[in-house]
TrEMBL record:
InterPro entries: GGT_bact, GGT_CS, GGT_lsub, GGT_peptidase, GGT_ssub_C, Ntn_hydrolases_N
Record's subunit section: This enzyme consists of two polypeptide chains, which are synthesized in precursor form from a single polypeptide.
Protein name stated in the entry: Glutathione hydrolase proenzyme
Catalytic function, reaction form: an N-terminal (5-L-glutamyl)-[peptide] + an alpha-amino acid = 5-L-glutamyl amino acid + an N-terminal L-alpha-aminoacyl-[peptide]; an S-substituted glutathione + H2O = an S-substituted L-cysteinylglycine + L-glutamate; glutathione + H2O = L-cysteinylglycine + L-glutamate
E.C. number(s) listed in UniProt: 2.3.2.2, 3.4.19.13
Catalytic residues, chain numbering: 375 (nucleophile)
UniProt PTM: Cleaved by autocatalysis into a large and a small subunit.
Signal peptide segment: 1-19
Residues given in the record as L-glutamate binding sites: 100, 393-395, 417, 446-447, 468
Pathway: Sulfur metabolism; glutathione metabolism
PROSITE patterns (UniProt xref): G_GLU_TRANSPEPTIDASE (PS00462)
Phylogenetic classification of the source organism: Bacteria, Pseudomonadati, Bacteroidota, Cytophagia, Cytophagales
Swiss-Prot/TrEMBL keywords: Acyltransferase, Glutathione biosynthesis, Hydrolase, Signal, Transferase, Zymogen
GO biological process, one term: glutathione catabolic process
Amino acid sequence: MTARLVLITLSFLMVCCHAPQSINKSNKGLLGNQCMVVSAHELASEAGKQILSQGGNAFDAAVTVHFVLAVVYPQAGNIGGGGFAIFRESNGTSGSLDFREKAPLQATKNMYLNDDGNVIPGKSLMGHLAVGVPGSVDGLFTLHKKYGSLPWSQLLQPAVDLAENGHTINESLAKELNRFHDDFLEVNKRQTAYTKDGVWKKGDTLINTNLAKTLTAIQAQGRDGFYMGWVAQKLINESTNGHGLITMTDLNLYKSKWRKPLTGFYKKHQIITMAPPSAGGVTLLQMLQGSEQFDFQKSGHNTAATIHQMIEIERRAYADRATYLGDPDFVKIPLDSLLSRAYNSQKFSSINTSQATPSSSIKKGQVEVIESMETTHFSILDTQGNAVAITTTLNSYFGSKVIVEGAGFFLNNEMDDFSAQSGVPNQFGLISTEVNSIQPEKRMLSSMTPTIVEKDGQVKMIIGTPGGSTIITSVYQTILNIIDHNMTMQEAVNAPKFHSQWLPDKVYFEKEKFAKSLLDSLTKLGHQTQLRAAIGKLECILVYDDGTIEGAADVTRNESAAAGF
Ligand code: DON
């Protein structure tokens, strides 16, 4: 296609399909000038703010927020799950900690297949066999040991109090507890703190004394309060009685890992993001490199032309996710190639600006191997300028639905993030291959993308979201909303999102947020569009050039909150 024809096509799309979005600068989130916490629950954000106002740093506040979320947001907040932390100290040094779950020692490659070699639906999703060895407590303890400033015990007190004395549940927790009531009974075969006669209602009090005891053990003994002693024994009893695979050796062996964050640039902004075993950072950086070939500022926010180009970028990056990414401690990942400018300019040069490329015709890129449906995110910036972004998860809502008897916490179902069989999609429709097959002690591939963006040597954004496979595209679109479309963080968070992940060959759009004429234009370009519920729950921070801090909670998609001053 000639350059002139491309230009005509783009101009046509811009004129016909631009659903103009007025960028209202007054639409900002919570403003402050010293510190900010944004999380999926107001009690967690408030508790984090209290720690900051008591002189704690962002790492201290992260510990408190994480453990409070485990009490007040049990859908995803956890001690029985895992996650990733990206951070940047006020002196400019950045780092990351991987506290992703691991496959138990007794796990086997074909553990979710029947005798005919087919995946048994649900086996990696619900019940004891779905559980990976939890990493959260080790992760938060390790992070605090190196970077925290207030005593560990003080940081856990708000969570202990909330579990012991109870908290008033909000509408979304009431709804989700009712939705999963039967699953809780089916898996646990007993009443627990999370079930009751009759339905849960907003305003009910949820008390979990077993969880309070567990948190008290962690408060007193740190990591060992979870991985050793009576809590560990309860976890092992639960696993053994439910025919799960986790043993005391698994718990003893679990260690979170410091990993070098991935970094890259987009229009003079430095992006600091998560390395494998999260696919998030690689895929995000690839998509940002692909975006440099286009002028989205000119083609406009969420116009057909822009969305078309972004879908084509997303589709191509996700093909590499499926093909090359897994746990770097087990498989060789051609990171240098995947992130090289030469590779990506070649990869994205096949984008046709006036026609969708069928996913079936996109093969994995030719790389050179160089030797050598619930999660939660929170963002914190402290008064000294330390920034922490943590995305943590049980995987599905309430994970495997297994509640450790006598200890009161949910166990994850993270084993579903492995490829149970090459090419067979997981719960997010993601496929992968041998690189992400199950092996003892291996970490399952993730999409979690906690990210910090720097400009001129200063923290500019702290970003992240849940959403399974849509995490990476939501983070990508939010970054472009700020850099290319000059939005406030609240506008960037609120903005309608869409998602393509290569396979299935569909593009998902948040329902009721995109004009029909726009979707029709994309269909004409060859995209298969599909409407779906909310994409992402972004909890983000933006720092303006004058030092104003904006905390933007994704209040239109979830009952989250910013707290700061
Ligand atoms: O690690 C991952 O990519 C998934 N376990 C995340 C799950 C998730 O975000 C579900 N939330 N909506």
